[in-house]
């Protein structure tokens, strides 16, 4: 075992990182060991190792400015009533000289350091390890059990067990007499969440803190009881090293760890993490935000939306979004019961140049129709730089492929296309992957309206803008390549 | 078996010419939709292929003075239907938006876009003298093919006009007219275009819906036109609210 593989949890950060203070960063700000992202008075907050934290007004562009005293590593946050409870590890998981760790908690009424209510309570120790036992008390994860109102803390690293203790949700202190329960081994940066009758224990496996060579990955097990046993999809106990993959490393975003969940509404969940290395950002550690999907009762990270040209298919019937233009037939008709000796030739598909002269020049309506991979049905989706964003993503423009014609919301809460993109907010679109893997598509604004509306199929063949309903396929879309 | 079916299908297409409409498979008068009466099956046909024994029953009943409301799902079943205008089209592939918009805004008879006809009123369209019929559909969908065949009129290459009056006890905002038709159609509410259904289209409930509309307190006029080449023409109309639920607090009349 080389030195790197011995480096555990947030410990290495004492050596590697300094407190990051940078200007506005879009999408993937520098951070390590981010806490669960919290929404407080309309702004998003996350805290990392060494104190401080990031603030974002839209969930896409982040600034430094968050304040978390106490230093230490790998904090987590939970909102209880109208207060926020912050937990953090005072130590570093081994490199500080041993495994005698301490987890502390403290309260604040707000996370906004400019608020007159911003004041941290005195931090109190809620869990510790003596340096010799099979546990190192770092990397806290908090869960307020929605079924019971009880407050739980998981903590630990590769040095022994992940443990669970109960805290008092009124005081943030350890429940008197509570004994730690071992719930996993060989992971760190744990977090807990509850969904549909199951408790889920998220853990980070692999090697931390080795830049692009980090093998960090996020796995999960689940239990009907908060106290475990947490089993993976193969029935293996996380106390025996089990865990089902939630998010592994990718080509440029390497070493995801430190899971956190944020629920943005029915059917819209996101997970936060850090990537140990972002090859597009100097292989430094950055914040990651991904859709969180649920498949057969298991959480799995969704994909970061990839720009490209797609058919946009309604889940209502399976028809695709299209321009409301005259259908232009391809040459030829019925091609069966003919001479089989006829030479077989490739027939080119219809191209934009074949049809665009038949389209009006001004605004053109939008409908939903049988998909034939025709030019009036192909949409190119590209991020719009400097247009801001929403939680975890930039805004996109949705353009008929090969043209400047873009999808836009109208003041009547309908959708049309306009001949060219102007950057107007009704031409900017938010695309969220839903927990079932389909997508919600929303305009940034509906002109003359404060309502947040989504692209919805009002009929099989008619799109409109209306309130999103996760229980209805009218509200869901998929992006397919052909 | 599959091969045989394909061959038969191909021969069927060949016999009808070189059109591509899927409607041809559904236009066979001998074919009976599941759940529908088999009354027309195997009947005699005249030289034009019309079923000489067909009648409006069981697809329609004559008008009554009884109060009529949308059915349990909100479909409007009481209509004034004009006998089909001859509009020959061997295939429905011509039913583009532009074609239909031109066709449906062409004047075929006087006061076409304003009249509230009475049962038995007659209009002249070129050499055709056509009669309005006040009927009530036995089904959620108004089976225009059966309307035409029951009156011994052409069933293919035809253009139908339909009118009905919707009475509302209150103003209802943000509703949509939801239409399905075989094949193309256009619908107006109180003289304003509500929804166009273009293409070689099959009848599907809630296929195309209008933008948000307002049903006035009192009388509202729905007017529609349905065109078909070869195929089993029909339509269904209802109003739905913002949640897609039917609007049923209405009465339907002929005047």
From TrEMBL, chain A:
Q: In which pathway does it act?
A: Glycan metabolism; L-arabinan degradation
A single Gene Ontology biological process assigned to it is: carbohydrate metabolic process
Q: Which residues form the signal peptide?
A: none
Q: Which domain of life is it from?
A: Bacteria
Q: Does the keyword DNA-binding apply?
A: no
The record, for Gene3D superfamilies, names:
2.80.10.50, Glycosyl hydrolase domain, family 43
Q: Which InterPro entries match?
A: GH43_arabinanases, Glyco_hydro_43, Glyco_hydro_beta-prop_sf, Ricin_B-like_lectins, Ricin_B_lectin
Mind telling me which PROSITE patterns this protein's record contains? RICIN_B_LECTIN (PS50231)
Give the positions of the site Important for catalytic activity, responsible for pKa modulation of the active site Glu and correct orientation of both the proton donor and substrate: 139
Q: Which residues form the Ricin B lectin domain?
A: 376-444
Name the UniProt key words of this record, in alphabetical order. Glycosidase, Hydrolase
One molecular function GO term is: hydrolase activity, hydrolyzing O-glycosyl compounds
Q: Does the keyword Ubl conjugation apply?
A: no
What's this protein's family per the entry?
Belongs to the glycosyl hydrolase 43 family.
What name does the UniProt record give this protein?
A: Arabinan endo-1,5-alpha-L-arabinosidase
Q: Top-down, what is the taxonomic lineage of the species of origin?
A: Bacteria, Pseudomonadati, Bacteroidota, Sphingobacteriia, Sphingobacteriales
From TrEMBL, chain B:
What residue stretch is flagged as signal peptide? 1-19
Tell me which UniProt keywords the record has, alphabetically. Signal
Give the span(s) annotated as Disordered.
25-48
Q: What is this protein called?
A: Acetylxylan esterase
Recorded source organism is Mucilaginibacter oryzae
What taxonomic lineage is listed for the species of origin?
A: Bacteria, Pseudomonadati, Bacteroidota, Sphingobacteriia, Sphingobacteriales
């Amino acid at each position: 075992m080389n030195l790197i593989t011995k480096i555990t949890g947030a410990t290495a950060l004492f050596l590697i990182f300094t407190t990051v203070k940078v200007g506005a960063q879009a999408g993937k700000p520098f951070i390590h060991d981010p806490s669960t992202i919290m929404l407080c008075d309309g702004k998003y907050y996350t805290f990392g190792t060494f104190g401080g934290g990031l603030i974002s007004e839209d969930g896409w562009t982040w600034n430094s400015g968050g304040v978390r005293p106490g230093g230490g590593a790998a904090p987590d946050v939970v909102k209880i009533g109208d207060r926020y409870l912050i937990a953090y590890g005072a130590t570093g998981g081994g490199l500080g000289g041993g495994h005698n760790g301490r987890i502390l908690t403290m309260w604040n009424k707000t996370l906004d350091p400019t608020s007159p209510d911003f004041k941290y309570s005195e931090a109190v120790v809620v869990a510790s390890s003596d340096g010799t036992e099979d546990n190192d008390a770092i990397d806290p994860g908090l869960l307020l059990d929605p079924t019971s109102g009880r407050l739980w803390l998981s903590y630990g690293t590769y040095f022994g067990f992940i443990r669970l203790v109960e805290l008092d949700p009124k005081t943030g202190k350890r429940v008197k007499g509570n004994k730690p329960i071992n719930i996993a081994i060989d992971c760190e940066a744990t977090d807990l969440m509850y969904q549909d009758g199951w408790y889920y224990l998220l853990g980070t496996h692999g090697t931390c803190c080795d830049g692009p060579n980090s093998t960090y990955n996020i796995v999960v097990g689940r239990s009907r009881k908060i106290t475990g046993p947490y089993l993976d999809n193969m029935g293996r106990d996380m106390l025996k090293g089990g865990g089902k993959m939630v998010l592994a490393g990718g080509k440029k975003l390497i070493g995801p760890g430190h899971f956190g969940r944020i629920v943005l509404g029915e059917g819209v969940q996101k997970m936060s993490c850090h990537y140990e290395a972002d090859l597009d950002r100097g292989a430094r550690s950055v914040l990651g935000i991904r859709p969180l999907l649920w498949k057969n009762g298991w959480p799995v990270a969704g994909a970061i939306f990839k720009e490209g040209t797609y058919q946009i298919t309604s889940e209502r019937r399976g028809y695709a979004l299209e321009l409301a233009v005259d259908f232009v037939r391809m040459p030829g008709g019925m091609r069966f019961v003919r001479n089989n000796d006829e030479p077989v030739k490739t027939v080119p598909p219809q191209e934009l140049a074949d049809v665009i002269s038949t389209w009006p020049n001004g605004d053109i309506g939008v409908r939903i129709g049988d998909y034939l991979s025709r030019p009036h049905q192909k949409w190119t989706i590209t991020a719009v730089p400097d247009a801001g964003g929403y939680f975890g993503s930039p805004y996109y423009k949705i353009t008929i492929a090969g043209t400047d014609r873009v999808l836009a919301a109208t003041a009547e809460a309908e959708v049309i296309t306009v001949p060219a993109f102007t950057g107007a907010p009704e031409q900017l679109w938010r695309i969220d992957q839903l927990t079932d893997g389909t997508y919600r598509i929303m305009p940034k604004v509906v002109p003359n309206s404060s309502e947040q509306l989504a692209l919805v199929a009002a009929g099989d063949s008619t799109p409109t803008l209306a309130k999103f309903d996760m229980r209805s396929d009218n509200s869901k879309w998929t992006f397919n390549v052909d | 078996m599959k091969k045989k079916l394909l061959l038969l299908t191909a021969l069927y297409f060949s016999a009808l010419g070189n059109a591509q409409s899927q409607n041809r498979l559904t236009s066979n008068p001998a074919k009976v939709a599941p759940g529908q009466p088999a009354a027309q099956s195997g009947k005699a046909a005249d030289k034009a292929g019309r079923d000489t024994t067909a009648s409006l029953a069981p697809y329609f009943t004559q008008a009554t003075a009884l109060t009529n409301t949308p059915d349990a799902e909100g479909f409007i079943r009481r209509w004034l239907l004009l006998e089909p205008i001859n509009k020959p089209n061997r295939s429905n592939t011509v039913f583009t938006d532009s074609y239909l918009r031109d066709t449906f805004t062409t004047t075929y008879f006087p006061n076409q876009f304003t009249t509230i006809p009475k049962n038995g009123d007659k209009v002249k369209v070129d050499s055709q003298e056509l009669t309005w019929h006040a009927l009530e559909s036995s089904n959620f969908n108004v089976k225009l093919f059966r309307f035409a065949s029951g009156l011994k009129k052409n069933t293919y290459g035809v253009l139908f006009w339909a009118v009905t009056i919707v009475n509302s006890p209150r103003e209802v905002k943000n509703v949509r007219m939801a239409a399905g038709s075989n094949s193309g159609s256009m619908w107006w509410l109180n003289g304003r275009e509500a929804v166009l259904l273009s293409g070689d289209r099959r009848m599907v409930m809630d296929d195309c819906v209008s933008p948000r509309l307002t049903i006035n307190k009192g009388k509202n006029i729905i007017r529609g036109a349905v065109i078909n080449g070869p195929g089993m023409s029909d339509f269904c109309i209802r109003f739905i609210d913002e949640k897609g639920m039917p609007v049923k607090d209405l009465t339907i009349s002929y005047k």
